[in-house]
Amino acid sequence: LNPNYISALVNRGITEMQLNHFQKAKKDFEKCIQLDPKAGELWRFLGISKLNLNEKTGACKDFNSALELGDQIAGQLINENCK
């Protein structure tokens, strides 16, 4: 795996979440954000992994970052989890 190949990291992170390996997913999405910090969807994925690790404050911050970057799904996650 090329450590900077963002598509592979995203796919692996999503797979890790499906397997309930949220710590591994979180690590992959943190790397993705280092590579592309303006991709709102990546912030949302990071927030979902944190939410599943009971890191609610961090998750809500990530959802807000996603929303600011135009990810509309993040707004729904904020309404459901961050109020």
Structure description:
By secondary structure, the chain is an all-alpha fold. It has 5 helices and no strands. It has helices spanning 6-18, 22-35, 40-52, 56-68, 72-81. The model has no long low-confidence stretch (mean pLDDT 96).
Number of strands: 0
Work out the oligomeric state of the chains in this entry: single chain
Provide mean pLDDT, rounded.
96
Cα Rg: 12 Å
The low-pLDDT segments are none
How many separate helices?
5
Distance between the termini: 39 Å
How would you spell out the order of helices and strands? HHHHH
Strand percentage lies at: under 5%
Q: Please give the share of residues in helix.
A: over 70%
Shape: globular
Largest sheet: none
**Structural class given helices, strands, pairing?**
mainly alpha
Key traits:
mainly alpha; 83 residues; 76% helix
